Amino acid sequence: MSSSAAIKNKTVSTRTTFEISNRAKQNLAKQGLTISEYLRLALIKAANNQVKLVNFLDTPEALTGKEEAESGQIKAIGTVDDFDKWIDKIDEDSKH
């Protein structure tokens, strides 16, 4: 391939909500990046095998919680319905 050969670009698209897109734009702009630039950097890291996924189940807190649950050291603080309501409230609060 000669040095004057044209580089072929690949377009990658993704779908997200309007709200997520706007929040991402605002937060990335604070760092001087566009969504496109951020995604390009992320793809470069992935191509170079530099992506480290965080497994939240391996954190010290999660492992302690797992040990407590397995040994019966747990206390019920509500129902699944209570949890759903709590999550909904957090979602609503984060939109304001």
Protein architecture, described:
It is a single chain. With 96 residues, this protein is mainly alpha-helical. It contains four helices and no strands.
| SSE-based structural type | mainly alpha
Rg of Cα set? 21 Å
Low-confidence stretches: none
**Shape estimate:** flat
Q: Please tally the helical runs, counting DSSP H or I stretches of 4 or more residues.
A: 4
- Major sheet summary line: none
Report the end-to-end length measured between terminal Cα atoms: 54 Å
Number of strands: 0
Topology of this protein?
Layout: H1 18-29, H2 35-47, H3 60-70, H4 80-94
Task: Throw out a few tags for this protein.
mainly alpha, 96 residues, 53% helix
Quick summary of this structure?
By secondary structure, this protein is mainly α.
